[in-house]
Amino acid sequence: MKKLILILFLSPFFLSACTSNEGAAKDQAIKEAQGQFDEVLNKEALDNIAQSDWLRDAFVRYIHSGTEWSADSIKMEGDNDATVTVLAETVALKPRKTVAAIAGRLDKSVERNFNFSNALGLIAQQTGTSADKVKIPFVIKVHKTGDHWIAAQ
Predict the structure, then answer these.
(1) Phi-psi category of 124—alpha, beta or left, where left has phi over 0 and alpha has psi -120 to 50?
(2) Where is pLDDT greater, at 13 or 24?
(3) Nearest to residue 43, comparing CAs of 28, 27, 63?
(4) How far is Cα 40 from Cα 27, in angstroms, rounded to an integer?
(5) What average pLDDT does the segment 36-60 reach?
(6) Biggest alpha carbon–alpha carbon distance for the chain
(7) C-alpha pair distances (Å), 34 with each of 4, 8, 63, 125
(8) What is the CA 66 to chain-centroid distance, rounded?
(9) Total structural domains in the chain?
(10) Is a pLDDT exceeding 70 seen at residue 117?
């Protein structure tokens, strides 16, 4: 009877430790996925918007700020390793590249007036496609060193 009471008393502590461990792993995986996505956005901007640093930065900021992040699933591999599937809900690739290409053809005198949101809406309207966001998965491996989670190499 004492063992049962002890188990019932201590089980919430073990569960909360596992939950906080998973939460920290998910948080680190989301940060890593955001970094990878920013690299993709920066490459798209460099490939399409050659005439203006300001416009390239505005493109990356716009897409990044409109992206919603969530950790979809986690698979713990022992106490110190995990694989996390992170979902980025963002603008689909084709409209994103189209708006970058359009921004890349803007005259320098009007670039600061360019509205990415309106442009994406017009692209969807003209092409008959949806302006809905899509979910892009990132599979991130993380490793715990000490008290901190880092991206696994």
Answers:
(1) alpha
(2) 24
(3) 63
(4) 20
(5) 95
(6) 80
(7) 45, 40, 12, 29
(8) 10
(9) 1
(10) yes
CB 84 within 8 A of CB 29: yes
Contact partners, residue 12, CB within 8 Å, separation at least 6 = none
Rounded CA gap, 122 and 91, in Å?
A: 14
Average pLDDT value for residue range 75-101: 94
Helices (H), 49-137: 53-65, 93-104, 116-127
- Sequence letter at residue 111: E
- The residue segments making up the domain with residue 26 are 2-151
**How many Å apart are CA 41 and CA 128, to the nearest integer?**
24
| Residue 105 structure tokens | 């053809």
Question: Is the pTM higher than 0.85?
Answer: no
Which two tokens mark 109?
């005198």
Residue 44 near residue 64, CB atoms below 8 Å: no
How far apart CA 136 and CA 126 sit, in angstroms, is 24
Strand pairing report for 134-145 and 81-90: antiparallel
Average pLDDT over residues 44-61: 94
